Amino acid sequence: MDIKIEVEKVKLGMFVAKLDRPWLGTPFHFQGSWVYDLDAIDNLRRFCSTVWVRTDKRGRPTDVQDNVTVDWTDRMAKSDREAQVFDFMPARPVNHIDTASVEEEMSLARAARTKVCEALDEVVDDIHRGRKIAVVGLKDAVTGITESVVRNPDACMWLRLVKDRDTYTYYHLLDTSALAIAFGRHLGFSRVELADIGLGAMLIDIGKLKLPADLVRKTTPLSELEQQEVKKHVDYSVELLHQVPDISKRVFEIVHAHHECFDGSGYPRGFAGREIPSFARMVAITDFFDAITSDRPYAVAISPHDAMRRLYDECGKSFQRELVEQFIQCLGIYPTGTLVELHSGEVGIVVGQNRVRRLLPRLMLILGVDKKPLANFVDIDLATHANQLGDDYTAVTIKRSVEPEAYGIDPRQFYLAQGRMTPELLDNISRLL
Description:
Blueprint: E1 2-6, E2 15-19, E3 33-34, H1 38-47, E4 50-54, H2 72-83, H3 102-128, H4 136-151, H5 153-159, H6 168-187, H7 191-202, H8 213-216, H9 224-231, H10 233-242, H11 249-257, H12 278-292, H13 304-313, H14 321-331, E5 339-342, E6 347-352, E7 362-367, E8 373-381, H15 382-389, E9 398-401, H16 429-432
Antiparallel strand pairs: 1-4, 2-3, 2-4, 5-6, 5-9, 6-7, 7-8
């Protein structure tokens, strides 16, 4: 149930379902938003007088008892029903904390990716030669990716930007896996569970290696017969895994159910809602997000920010709404790789997230107020500068995301440039803002 309250009474942890004004034109880019930090509360107070908040989806008391008479008998019964919606949450969440900076983690993440690619080569070779696939090396390699994401997920998120059409199929598995691990980290799963999520995501499409190569590489729309043939890759993947010892049930569930849709319209079994294993529901989201933000043989990538909108459009259809909302919280409103413009006029690329203040990520400024390239790219942590400026920090907040085409910028071109970011460059901030 949604309850109308004054905006001054909004507290951390609430879910705002409706505003007293249209969502368009506010900093909230989705119709419905969790209040996870003080920035969200500040923005609500800037734009609204009253809002509608949803009663706690996990069955716990809300902070609005003074606005409504609470029937605790009804609330207890409702708790049992609504708790099922959150069956994807771990029983004992682990609070993962960043232990490395993006710069410190970058080389380790790159090495982990290389190891995964080598292990994938072995798996592909096994399939082509008709041998039982050996996933021992792949398990070890996924452990490396898992450890990197646990230390700091932003490095792997930044490395996602470098794949192109020619390497899409290969790196799609790797990056879907990294995204899934980051998602699991956000939800609080243990390292063992994260490794299973990562391995399952890495193996979702291995059955495509048993399809005709020209069908997999086809760049034009598939006929109905061809679509049915492609759908067989799920069964092929499961068959291949049945030949491998020591594959966990979670990995099987991910591979078998990642194309099921929350409304029952997916395949191969037409599962719906909670019939779909929770890890498969998670990987379905990361699979979709990585696909549409990547250049594919038959489609051009869209921006991470626009991909979030596409995900939200699929809520209740392809994906579970609550999981999509959590995934958006995981990657941030402005995911790594998003091109953004500050209120002060500079343009930068998001290179890292602030886990506490989601609207104030870390940027690499590349264009000045005049929209001309800066002589030196500047690394700026918006949260740090907001703290330094106190109440007058509007200049260092994000005004909007911008399409790369608007300024002829491809964020991937600046991947190597991140190595140029040094603390000394922060001295330039005073003259830029």
